[in-house]
Design brief:
Length: about 475
């Protein structure tokens, strides 16, 4: 058995070593550990009795356990061993969860930056981030975005955004601060290389959805260390604490059944997930949950400010859309700002957009929101001729996505603003009492195209602009 395990390790290095030698080890599963989700009502003590295992950590509400295996059970035999156990729903090995560094770099993000750049960076124009005013009914108010990451540090820009119920699965307490301890705990030559990651994610969510609430769930430490147990626990905790949107700027190479079950539970609750596609420069579904290719999980690749695919970004048919992820500035710990690159930084721009859309259309399913979001993207095919069909529907366009969720200008509620809406728009303006009779499935608010809260002739210009602008 030991011989087989050594051979297995060699194969992994051989497959992935050429592409990313520095990270092959970081993707290897944990030795002597298993991840198991028991059936409802099943008792972990009985499981331990059957297999000689012990609990390392647990998410008891979902009967999920990270277990230490006895020497008699090699980790690579664990899944097969328990597969026929009637009390086991799902079982996996335990894998690391990473926000892989952009290829060629040793850090997720690099520079301390200035707040002015946060306010002025090219990404805001690129994704057509509107002023709040025309979309005052869709600012993310009342919507909770779970940031499952390194935690979220206090920051003036994030003041008042914290949702109650955050949790720290690293230190297993309620302190969700995102901090640097100044030690190179994983001895890779860089201290605290991931401290601030979750705070940057939160800053981007709030910049896009300024009245959204942030549910901070810490699953990764300041060195970027996380595992599939903590990711799974973080997702369930988000579901159990009122998340409407979950941002996952991290992923694992293991298409874990326990992880898939957590994602499916989120989708069953109509929670929509924004997941970074990963930074391995690979065309296959390399990082999960992004790689699961589920309708309610948006897999997000990264582009630069010219809509060109970032050289580190994963791509492929499983990618849903692309968002800016190169040289992005956001909030950091110690009240400052940081700049970095990665699909990690594009995902929260999508999460924020989904928060605004959720607020605009509370009854929408996660699949509805996905469809509206993807239909509202801008094509970037011309900028990326070498990646046809590999970068999803297009580049995020916040204004159009929020418009679509609000139904602005779509007077016949067919999902599009077109010349077919002109007659209904005129009716809404001239005979507002007749409009709901003719279009009982629609809301007259759709005619408030300039977003000032009333339907008047002042909306004609913006309606025409929407028609002309497509
Ligand atoms: Ca380190
Ligand atoms: Ca550290
Ligand atoms: Ca229409
Ligand atoms: Ca108006």
């Amino acid at each position: 058995m030991i011989y087989r395990r050594l051979v297995g390790a060699t194969v992994v290095l051989g497959l992935f070593g050429a592409a990313s030698p520095a990270w092959a080890d970081e993707d290897s599963p944990f030795e002597s550990e298993g991840l198991v989700q028991l059936a409802p009502g099943a008792n972990i003590a009985d499981f331990h009795t059957r297999y000689g295992t012990t609990t390392i950590e647990s998410y008891a509400a979902q009967n999920i356990y990270r277990v230490a295996l006895p020497p008699t059970i090699p980790a690579d035999t664990f899944e097969a061993l328990v597969a026929t156990d009637a009390e086991v729903l799902h079982a996996d090995r335990v894998f690391p969860v990473l926000d892989t560094n952009p290829v060629g770099s040793s850090q997720s993000f690099f520079f301390f930056d200035v707040g002015q750049r946060f306010a002025d960076q090219p990404a805001w124009g690129q994704i057509d981030l509107p002023d709040v005013a025309p979309h005052a009914s869709a600012t993310g108010a009342g919507v909770t975005v779970a940031v499952v990451d390194t935690g979220v540090a206090p920051h003036p820009f994030l003041a008042g955004s914290a949702a109650p119920g955050g949790f720290n699965f690293v230190e297993r307490n309620a302190n969700t601060n995102d901090f640097a301890d100044t030690l190179d705990n994983n001895q890779n030559g860089v201290a605290d290389e991931y401290a601030g990651h979750g705070t940057m994610v939160a800053g981007l969510v709030r910049r896009v959805a300024p009245q959204s609430s942030i549910l901070a769930i810490r699953v990764m430490d300041d060195e970027g260390r996380c595992d599939t147990f903590k990711l799974v626990a973080g997702i369930h905790h988000a579901i159990d604490n009122g998340a409407d949107v979950i941002n996952l700027s991290l992923g694992t190479i293991d298409p874990s059944d326990v992880l898939l079950a957590a994602v499916n539970r989120a989708l069953a609750s109509e929670i929509v997930i924004a997941a970074a596609a990963g930074n391995d420069d690979r065309p296959d579904p390399r990082r999960y949950p992004a790689g699961f290719n589920l309708p309610g999980v948006l897999a997000i690749a990264a582009c630069d400010e010219f809509d060109v695919r970032a050289p580190f970004s994963n791509y492929g048919p499983h990618v849903d859309l692309i968002a800016p992820g190169v040289e992005i500035t956001s909030t950091l710990y110690n009240l400052g700002f940081g700049r970095g690159s990665g699909t990690s930084l594009g995902a929260p721009l999508v999460a924020g957009t989904l928060a605004r859309m959720r607020g605009a259309r509370p009854g929408a399913t996660s699949t509805d929101l996905r469809d509206l979001l993807l239909a509202s993207t801008d094509s970037i095919a011309a900028q990326n001729p070498s990646y046809p069909g590999q970068l999803g529907a297009g580049r995020l366009n916040v204004a159009r996505a929020v418009d679509a969720a609000l139904g602005r200008g779509d007077m016949d509620c067919d999902g599009f603003v077109s010349v077919a809406d002109i007659g209904a728009f005129v009716l809404a303006l001239t005979e507002p009492a007749q409009y709901p009779v003719a279009f009982p499935q629609c809301r007259i608010e759709h005619a408030d195209t300039n977003g000032d809260g009333v339907v008047t002739v002042g909306d004609v210009g913006t309606f025409v602009g929407m028609l002309v602008g497509g």
